Amino acid sequence: MRIVLLGPQGAGKGTQAQRISEKTGAEHIATGDLVRAEIKSGSELGQKIKEYNDRGDLVPDEIIVEMMRPYLEDADSWILDGFPRNQHQAEALDEMLKEIDAELDAAVAMEAPDDLLVERLSGRRTSESTGRIYHVEYDPPPEDSDVDPGPFVQREDDEAEAIRHRLKIYHDQTEPLKDYYADRGILATVDATQSIPEVTEDILEAVGEKP
Ligand code: AP5
After folding, report:
1. Rounded Cα distance, 120 and 116, in Å
2. What is the position in ligand 1's atom list of the atom closest to the CA of 89?
3. 114-122 vs 160-169: helix crossing angle, rounded to 10
4. Half-sphere exposure (CA, 13 Å, Cβ side) for 11?
5. Is it the case that residue 157 has pLDDT exceeding 90?
């Protein structure tokens, strides 16, 4: 399985990619996680990309493409979460796939209105130890530390102004990719306002993985 999850911030790309990865064994490749790990490492590159991340801006394409490349080459089956984010990145992905003689099976567009997204992002908590994503109301962190020891933290870019900025970039630059993949006949659309398990079911069905 080689799929791309497209969708605005808070649609649940990370949440669904984790669940689908657990169910199918496909590798979850999240460019946002790669960016945050690089920043946390304190490297020179991490310091350079921190300002983009914190403002809610896209990190320059050439940096992101080079961060992605080894992951694509290492796994046969993957779910891309947060990449591609614009036409240039979509073309770079096509080039990388050609080089490794692979094809994209589907791009899944996860649809939800902006109001709901802001509410989801404001309540998001991420486990610092496991990377698992939770929501204070819709999917609360477990109280049992054997399940997930946490701590459960808020992301630096989940602040109102950065959220609005990220959503604008999504509508301007990422949303047009729906047409890019629709023209190739591999776009599927899923209603991301449903419950977390319902969205998982719909995505698995859309990509032909539902048993
Ligand atoms: P990234 O980490 O990709 O962030 P994002 O695009 O802002 O997406 P989010 O993680 O906010 O949303 P999501 O859809 O994954 O939602 P989630 O599952 O967490 O990127 C961060 C930064 O890195 C970018 O701003 C940029 O600087 C850089 N970057 C990354 N990729 C790049 C690229 N390709 N090019 C350039 N720069 C790049 O869910 C959100 C919340 O909702 C959670 O609390 C969850 O529990 C809850 N939730 C999810 N689904 C449901 C549901 N169905 N019902 C109720 N609650 C739900």
Report:
1. 6
2. 34
3. 140
4. 26
5. no
pLDDT of residue 211: 61
Question: Tokens 């992951």 belong to which residue?
Answer: 71
- Alpha carbons 151 and 130: distance in angstroms, whole number: 9
CA distances from 123 to 107, 120, 160, 193 (A): 27, 5, 12, 15
* Tens-digit pLDDT profile for residues 178-204: 999 999 999 999 999 999 999 999 999
Q: Whose CA is nearest to atom 40 of ligand 1?
A: 10
Q: Which residues are designated catalytic? A: 13, 85, 124, 155, 166
pLDDT tier, 40 (very low <50, low <70, confident <90, very high otherwise): very high
Identify which of 19, 83, 139 to mutate to test ligand 1's pocket (most ligand atoms within 8 A of the CB). Answer: 139
Q: pLDDT (tens digit, 9 = 90+) per residue, 42-87?
A: 999 999 999 999 888 999 999 999 998 999 888 889 999 999 999 9
Complete edge-to-edge strand list for the sheet that includes strand 27-30: 27-30, 78-81, 2-6, 106-111, 187-191
Question: What residues have CB less than 8 Å from 146, skipping those under 6 apart?
Answer: none
Q: Ligand 1 centre from 48 Cα, in Å?
A: 21
